[in-house]
What we know:
Oligomer: single chain
Helix content: over 70%
Mean pLDDT: 81
Number of helices: 14
Amino acid sequence: MRWWSLANFVSNAGTWMQLTVQNLLVLQITGSAAATGLSMSVQAAPALFMSLLGGAAVDRWPRKLTAAVSQALLGAVAFTTALLVALDRLDMTSLMVLAAVTGIVATVDGPACALLGNDLVPVEDVPSAIGVGALVHNSGRLAGAALAGVTVGVLGTASAYAANGLSFLFVTAVIPFLRPAPGAAGRGEGAARLATASRRGRGGSGGRGKDMTVREGLAFFVRRPRLLALAGITGISAVFGRNYQLTLAVLVTGPLAGGAGSFGTVSTVLAVGGILGAILGARLRRPSVRVVGMLAATGGLLQVVAGLSPSLAVLLVMVLPMAVVESVSDTAGTAVLQTDPPAHLRGRVLGVWSSIGTVWGLGGPPALGLLMEWAGARGALVTGGLLIAGTIGAGLLLRDRRTPSPVTLRAREGDLPEREALGTAA
Length: 426
């Protein structure tokens, strides 16, 4: 687990190095902000249409091999981009193709790496492992953004892509040496995969199983009320409460009369709050949808107060708990998502979740932008926070009044019905 966390830290740092310079590179090539947004959409679009297939592939293929191959492919794309930039041969067409390839590979790499950590932790350490993963992500983001400026200034833009390629190769090199924890559910999952393969070899499910794979994962998600509730909570929070880089930027530079330096300070406090929240989230032992909802509603109320801040100092005081609550909520939600499905469905459930998240990612900023046009930065923060808190509060009240209906699952060889599915630090 220590090696896996180190590998993910290196990979996150490399990814954020590349992301820090990528938008500037597109602007340099095209001089168009619209083209910059288009390149981001092209990379995100495959997750909308192919995540279900990617999750199904992860459930069917050996996980370590799948993760290693996908990481190597992402490294090859990063090295190719670095070479084209160094030779001054990168144009908009090749950039879009490379972005699309990255997005396609990521539909498999995301769930494969997210579930690879299942084999590395015992059941009781799942929330802690996910908290460590959030800590690794935020730390890698800070390190990557800081290193990008130094690296690009000394070695040029291509170096950021080359560094990201090296980070992918480091993860690829670590994966073969990972060993499962005693009693981890991944061992049972491996047995289930071997048994399934044996049945197919004897003329069992055959090709039809591949078609059923996607439908079964989608059907499980749709029939699972707690996953639907988690999707609703995360969705409204993502649209009206998570785009702080947009809302707080307008608030700081507009009504609070600050500059780029002031917003940089706000961004730093957000990052620090994310790290503190990851540490606190690692202490959760029994995360639930109710916990996620209460944290998200609390974050919405804090957002309302932040929107009414009379000065930058007051805003900074409010931003820290906002970031902490958001990070703990994310950790709890991830734990629920990765421990609720049985072993043979986890990849497909993550595929469904990735598709839903892509919808939020593509539709959230425009919707929030329209709200800001209508109500201003303060009005958007206050209105969004009230919508989050009010909607989640109403949902919790309705949930308490209804009788839950159980979901019947077909038993699979190798599943562990008496244990929770394991989570990950990835």
